[in-house]
């Protein structure tokens, strides 16, 4: 099977029971995505699959043959410049232990894309509105509710996402910029 991981084609020979998370961590040495609960409940393993956020612990790798996968390692630019969300997380001290941070970052990229595309969330004031969703603190909390932080850095995470949400580059990744 073949995956495009962070912009590079990666050919893999995997057992059909291997999850995307295990393929990334154990076969490709991309350890940014974390194995938290291994049940899709914590969000530590969140990656982008063809631009949409997904819990990699719940996806069988073989079902993704030919898909584009972006991990936290693929968010920064090739020259090392941080993604706007990564910069905002540092500036707002939006992490403590950092275990959930890769999943929070990938989920935030996906959430900002969804909001920019006008996809409503459960708390969107006017679900029928045309255009981008307004990123209130409540909106950001709802959109990131699938990502848990055991340290409780939520207020700083919300501030970081709100700050990065004003940067049009925050909805893209280095991989997409290079393509």
Automatic annotation (TrEMBL):
Q: Which GO terms describe its molecular function?
A: 2 iron, 2 sulfur cluster binding; metal ion binding; oxidoreductase activity, acting on the aldehyde or oxo group of donors
SUPFAM superfamilies, A to Z:
2Fe-2S ferredoxin-like, CO dehydrogenase ISP C-domain like
Under which pathway is this protein filed?
Alkaloid degradation; nicotine degradation
Q: Which UniProt keywords apply?
A: 2Fe-2S, Iron, Iron-sulfur, Metal-binding, Oxidoreductase
Can you tell me which residues the record assigns to a coiled coil?
none
Residue ranges of every copy of the 2Fe-2S ferredoxin-type domain listed in the record: 1-75
Pfam families to which the protein is assigned, alphabetical: Fer2, Fer2_2
The UniProt record lists the keyword Nucleus: no
**Could you tell me what this protein is called?**
2Fe-2S ferredoxin-type domain-containing protein
């Amino acid at each position: 099977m073949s995956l495009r991981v962070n912009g590079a084609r990666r050919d893999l020979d995997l057992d059909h029971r291997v999850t995307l998370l295990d393929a990334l961590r154990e076969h490709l040495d991309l350890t940014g995505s974390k194995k938290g609960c291994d049940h899709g409940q914590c969000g530590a393993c969140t990656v982008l699959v063809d631009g949409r956020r997904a819990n990699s612990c719940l996806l069988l790798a073989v079902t993704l043959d030919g898909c584009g996968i972006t991990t936290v390692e693929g968010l920064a630019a090739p020259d090392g410049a941080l993604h706007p969300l990564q910069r905002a997380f540092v500036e707002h001290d939006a992490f403590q232990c950092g275990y959930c941070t890769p999943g929070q970052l990938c989920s935030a990229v996906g959430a900002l894309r969804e909001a920019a595309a006008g996809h409503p969330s459960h708390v969107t004031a006017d679900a029928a509105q045309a255009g981008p969703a307004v990123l209130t603190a409540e909106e950001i909390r709802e959109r990131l509710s699938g990502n848990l932080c055991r340290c409780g850095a939520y207020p700083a995470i919300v501030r970081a996402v709100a700050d990065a949400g004003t940067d049009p580059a925050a909805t893209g990744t280095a991989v997409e910029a290079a393509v």
